[in-house]
């Protein structure tokens, strides 16, 4: 068992394998710190949860028409841990979002798209373009918290790094205000435009984690509705000029 | 028939989406116009295909055969993704 802090919430994890603890190493609370304050959430993993992840992974591979991949139990347990956290997080106005989130000069930019489109490639180009000014918040599955600004009926979004960051494990335990979300599409030539929430909605709904509980799912939809960030559609190739264009427009607006 | 609880209708401003919760067995989403939104609204309560067609005819000015065709098509799509309890 170990405790972590994720998106400002204290989470106790009762695990079966050591890999989950190793994965979460940069988010673990010290013993004193975790004993003093009650946790917000407890995640307990059973063999059933691991089997569920195995079946889910197999179903997804079959659906995509690729050979079924076989994963070890300890890796599947780490997926189960994050699934359980994501199921509960909307209760704390926080959602798991599939995308690559990078921070530049303290502001977050989230790129999202269907798998294989090149989200990580594009944020890598931002790193190449901006050097140390750019810090990867999370390359695959950041958490996004929606915070109401009481005086104006306006909501800010904060992006958080998490240990679940994709195959290259590119993530930092940091949080940044989210300035923009950009939907990526592959194209020969580069172009970018601002889009409305209505235009972005189908993709946002595809990329947010959908809880199995219907009440929590409705809360997730409300949180996406409230998310007050600039939205863009970027058609891009894999050349550095794509990052030059997207950074110039998204940082300026 | 009735819309399953795990399938959640959501208005987006220019149309309607039907979004399944995580365990619904269908991982996509259904995008439609306001007609789909009206059909989904009717399906929140137990109803029949005839009752949906009749309610839609009362609500919209389109020719009756067009409404009937659109409702049947929408219901067939919803059945296909397992969104209806029947």
Unreliable stretches of chain A (pLDDT < 50, length at least 5) are: none
Please state the average pLDDT score of chain B. 91
Mean pLDDT of chain A: 92
Broad structural category of chain B: alpha+beta
Compact description:
Chain A is α+β, with helices and mostly antiparallel strands and 253 residues long.
What report would you give on this structure?
The complex is a heterodimer of chains A (253) and B (86). With 253 residues, chain A is of the alpha+beta class. Chain A has helices at 19-23, 31-36, 47-64, 73-88, 119-130, 197-207, 214-226, 240-252; strands at residues 2-6, 9-14, 41-44, 94-96, 100-104, 107-112, 134-138, 143-149, 154-160, 175-186, 191-194, 230-236. The model of chain A has no long low-confidence stretch (mean pLDDT 92). Chain A folds into 2 domains: 2-89, no CATH class; 94-252, Rossmann fold (3-Layer(aba) Sandwich). In chain A, helix 3 packs across helix 4 and helix 5 (119-130) crosses helix 8 (240-252). In chain A, the strands form 2 sheets. In chain A, strands 4, 5, 6, 7, 8, 9, 10, 11 and 12 form a 9-stranded mixed beta sheet that branches. Chain A is globular and about 50 Å long. Chain B has 86 residues and is α+β, with helices and mostly antiparallel strands. Chain B has a single domain (2-85), classed as Alpha-Beta Complex (Outer Surface Protein A, domain 3). Chain B is built from 3 helices and 5 strands; from the N terminus they run ββββαααβ. In chain B, the strands form 2 sheets. In chain B, strands 2-3-4 form a 3-stranded antiparallel beta sheet, covered by helices on one side. Chain B has a two-stranded antiparallel sheet with strand order 1-5. In chain B, a hairpin with a 4-residue loop joins strand 2 (7-11) and strand 3. In chain B, helix 2 crosses helix 3. Chain B starts with a strand and ends with a strand. The model of chain B has no long low-confidence stretch (mean pLDDT 91). The chains are: A alpha+beta (253), B alpha+beta (86). Chains A and B meet through helix 6 and helix 7 of A and strand 3 of B.
